[in-house]
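The material for today's practical consists of a large collection of protein records. A record pairs a protein's sequence with a compact description of its fold. Instead of coordinates, the fold is spelled out as a row of discrete tokens. We will come back to this pairing of sequence and fold again and again. Here is such a record, shown just as it appears in the course material.
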Amino acid sequence: MLPGVLPDGDVDFHHGFAPELMDIGVEGVFGRLWSREGLARRDRSLLTLGMLIALGAEEELESHFRIAEQNGLTRGELAEVVYHTTGYVGFPAANSARQAATRAFAKRADEGDTAVT
């Protein structure tokens, strides 16, 4: 797996039903796709956010907003991603993404990171 890709403590990997699911996803997606050459992590974050917003995948979005910050995107740029999606996937999806980002940033603040860029 790529060090520094997933936010620390963000995913409970072995809990409850189908405990190996997260291992399979992390190995296949983060271990293989995110480590490929051809796109920078920052670019992969932009693409991933757009796809997750379109899918309405709020739980995954929360983690990926945090990952996107780790990959160099500012909160202003992340806001632009949310604004841009209104024209392609609609206001409800963009609003859900905004709410997921708000939760993600609150977690970061709870961890002592006060970045508001």
